[in-house]
Design goal:
The protein is an all-alpha fold. The chain has eight helices and no strands. The longest helix has 30 residues, at 37-66. This is Reticulon.
């Protein structure tokens, strides 16, 4: 799936496809809040297996009644290659490795206080996340993230002018406050970049 397909999915360009993806993902996450991941995977597997077995038996009965020789109903899918290529695995593992190394380097920089302002920002973020963690568990945050991913882009697209105006106002206020704090606290002035 390329970036354009993801954007089309999140912007609801094809309502049926987006609805199916969003509904299935939300149903899966809500199922995980009620049952363990092992149970959810087992139920999904049983449901799929029930459908395919019933379809296979149905087609077999139809072939027997009509005395036709169509063969296995899933033959075209059984003949397809489903293995991952080495190139694809190397490509994605290289991307993951570079992102992991970048993250480790950034965490080292923040935890070893290379830049005091960035370390303080990170500390404030961690402090805020302690309160978020007290109210929500990880699965709830993933569910909220999924809902936001499928609603925020379309809301922004429809109300872009108003949202941009208010975001600019907030950014100006934040810059003013950060500038005042940096001017008053020694050692917090950012280096010229």
């Amino acid at each position: 799936m390329d970036a354009k397909q993801v954007v089309d999915l999140l912007y609801w360009r094809d309502v049926k496809t987006t609805g199916v993806v969003f509904g299935a993902a939300l149903l899966l996450l809500l199922s995980l809040t009620m049952c363990s991941i092992v149970s959810v995977c087992s139920y999904i597997g049983l449901a799929l297996l029930s459908v395919t077995i019933c379809f296979r038996i149905y087609k077999g009965i139809l072939q027997a009644i009509q005395k036709s020789d169509e063969g296995h109903p899933f033959k075209q899918y059984l003949d397809q290659e489903v293995a991952l290529s080495e190139e694809m695995v190397h490509k994605y593992s290289d991307v993951a490795l570079s992102k992991l190394n970048k993250t480790i380097g950034e965490l080292r920089r923040v935890f070893l206080v290379e830049d005091l302002v960035d370390s303080i920002k990170f500390a404030v973020l961690m402090w805020i996340l302690t309160y978020v963690g007290a109210f929500f568990n990880g699965l709830t945050l993933i569910i909220l993230g999924l809902i936001a991913a499928f609603t925020c882009p379309i809301v922004y697209e429809k109300h872009q002018a108003q949202i941009d105006h208010y975001v600019a106002l907030v950014n100006n206020q934040v810059k003013d406050v950060v500038g005042k704090i940096q001017a008053k606290v020694p050692g917090m002035k950012r280096k010229a970049e």
